[in-house]
């Protein structure tokens, strides 16, 4: 079991069920706003109106859940900072993902994007990076570490992040939602690598927000075409580094008892 560093100093001791409760509460508010506003996921980036109702509004509602919950629990510091880092090599895939997103912005097609749409895209992308990384990576990692080793923490938090996208089946993209879930597991692994290789959740937030900003703003799907390859790389690198970390920790424990 991996115990959270400094857990005794937290207002509320981390528990798996508390992390899941925050995650579910966030989704409940987010999807309730989507349903009230009549979401069609495939058209989120279509206009000023769709961006406001289907991007900024639900994320703003979800933000309130995160701010209230984590402030009440006192989990901000462990959610945003990582004291036990993975090697810097873990940042390679996140860097490649960032380059792809930037290239998509350079070579994308934005003739339909108005100034107001750009503003809404920036606001929404900042919110999605902050919200989804904190609720599905930061605070879930804190909660899951109260019971599971790091391999389980990565797998469970990333699985929940990917399943966050499954309701899109009902919101306009049908069976493509299942493919999205699979790809998001891999991209979630890339965000996990960004978090653990840098020691801060901020790079994962920035990468997540940049990726969504790039894909929602351009009408050409260049970045989306690379997503499956980034996803595979993210999973492979995460597993390799976590296995090495587990072996290194086991060796250190063995040396300690000798």
From TrEMBL:
InterPro entries, alphabetized: Rce1/LyrA-like_dom
Keywords for this protein: Membrane, Transmembrane, Transmembrane helix
Segments forming domain CAAX prenyl protease 2/Lysostaphin resistance protein A-like: 117-213
Ranges that cross the membrane: 16-34, 54-76, 88-107, 113-130, 151-170, 225-243
Coiled coil: none
Pfam families in UniProt: Rce1-like (PF02517)
Protein name, per record: CAAX prenyl protease 2/Lysostaphin resistance protein A-like domain-containing protein
Organism: Isoptericola halotolerans
